[in-house]
Design brief:
CATH topology: Four Helix Bundle (Hemerythrin (Met), subunit A)
Helix content: over 70%
Number of domains: 1
Mean pLDDT: 90
Number of strands: 2
Strand content: under 5%
Radius of gyration: 18 Å
Shape: globular
CATH architecture: Up-down Bundle
CATH class: Mainly Alpha
CATH superfamily: CDP-alcohol phosphotransferase transmembrane (TM) domain
Low-confidence stretches: none
Length: 196
Amino acid sequence: MNLPNKLTLSRFGLTLAFMVVMFSQMRFRETLALVLFSAASLTDYFDGKIARRDNLITNFGILMDPLADKILVCSSFIAFVGLGWIPAWMVVIIVARELAITGLRLLAASKNVVLAAEGYGKHKTISQIIAIIAILVLKSYAEWGVVGTGVFGCHVFGEPWITWFEPFSIWVAVALTFISGTLYLWRNRQLYLQDL
């Protein structure tokens, strides 16, 4: 098994560890969850970069890399709903988009059509990762002492800047998720309309 595929598999393990920590009663759980999520996000960046650089692209990686991404992101948002940190309707949009696009790609594969990722999809993924990190930072920065309050507790508009950046990042992630999903389904509508 090559290094990019090992990194992809490690993301499943990091996601599991993230979920265990999120629902534990351990001290500094939000900080540890932030570290685990950040590490998992870095594996996503590096597995693709290494695979392209060293020409190590495999069918396993093509299938499992986006699946690992979706499981990481969706698990994180679902955990946040369970903890009451984000409204459920926002997460329904995110999860529904991922399921719909995965279903469309499976339908395309059954017809021997490969659907490439689009720019909106990449921006969507980045916005989701930023939103998750912002939520975890908001919940944990006070535990970091002077460094945390110095960096994330600086007041902007009368409040620590992270308190307004966090909801802003969530709204951006939900909007880009909805827009990217709608555009992807519309541009590839011939794949499913011909079967109706």
